[in-house]
Design goal:
By secondary structure, the protein is of the alpha/beta class. It has a single domain, classed as Rossmann fold, CATH 3.40.50. The protein is built from twelve helices and eight strands. The chain has an eight-stranded mixed β-sheet, with helices on both faces. This is Alpha/beta fold hydrolase.
């Protein structure tokens, strides 16, 4: 475990080096960005991270500000704050060559936003049950966060969760409640700067978007594919929002295939930095 100062915050970062390497070039780097509220980098430990390292990727995971073991400031939760965090973290870690970004839910919004800001630093983006930050996204986030903040004050909620799902789930939900009730998250996230369709069209980074067939986000797959110059969308059957957990193996297969297809092959003698 490492705590790294990035953008003025202490962020919890974990790295798993590639288990196998080929040739003399540095292995590709994949950065895994988790979702909001009850999520943390731990989700990737039990899903994609070990497999990606075994496949020859250097894996970087980190807890978003306010979540997991990272520092929790009272304010600064707009999307652009998270983008600044990721940018500063990659500056500190200095991975070799452009990175592959994999984002789950809100993490995919961060990944896409970073590619829009820094196309030369991103080899590919894989978004799991996610979407770019648009005006419609901001309205939806405002409603969802307000509803979540209210629901997490309900009498007896944590006792019910412990009885049905155990103390581990209750611990994560309590952490989400603290984030919503002790920070400006509910106000900040919907106030984030958003992208219009022209800005989305300008993102030339290859994007893979995975959706659960039972999720409302699946309706976006045609819209996203129509805008982006290099994009593949896949709708996974019998899945809702939690594709990362419910369809780990097929999602991992698709993402590894996408990463391999969009990893530059260095010429002999090239040094990638």
């Amino acid at each position: 475990m490492a705590m790294i100062d990035a953008n003025g915050l202490a962020l919890h970062v974990e790295r798993i080096p590639a288990r196998t390497t080929t040739g003399t070039a540095p292995p590709p780097t994949v950065v895994l960005v988790h979702g909001m509220l009850i999520d943390s980098l731990v989700s990737y430990y039990f899903t994609l991270a070990p497999r990606f390292a075994a496949a020859g990727l250097d894996v970087i995971m980190y807890d978003l500000r306010g979540q997991g073991l990272s520092e929790r400031p009272p304010a600064g939760y707009r999307l652009e704050d998270h983008l600044d965090d990721l940018e500063a973290l990659l500056d500190r870690l200095d991975p070799a060559g452009p990175v592959h970004l994999v984002g789950n839910s809100y993490g995919g919004t961060i990944a896409f936003g970073h590619a829009a800001r820094h196309p030369g630093r991103v080899a590919s983006v894989s978004m799991i049950e996610s979407e770019p930050a648009t005006a419609a996204w901001a309205r939806k986030m405002a409603a969802n966060l307000a509803r979540g903040a209210e629901e997490l004050t309900r009498d007896g909620l944590f006792e019910e969760l412990t009885e049905k799902h155990g103390k581990h789930v209750t611990k994560r939900v309590r952490s989400a409640a603290r984030l919503l009730h002790s920070t400006n998250t509910v106000r900040d996230v919907p106030a984030s700067r958003v992208l219009d369709e022209d800005a989305i069209r300008s993102v030339g980074t290859p994007v893979l978007a995975l959706y659960g067939a039972e999720s409302d986000l699946a309706a976006q797959e045609g819209w996203l594919r129509s805008l982006l110059p290099v994009c593949r969308t896949v709708v996974l059957p019998d899945q809702e929002h939690w594709v990362l957990v419910g369809a780990t193996e097929p999602a991992g297969d698709l993402i590894l295939e996408w990463i391999r297809a969009h990893t530059p092959v260095p010429a002999a003698g090239d040094v990638i930095r």
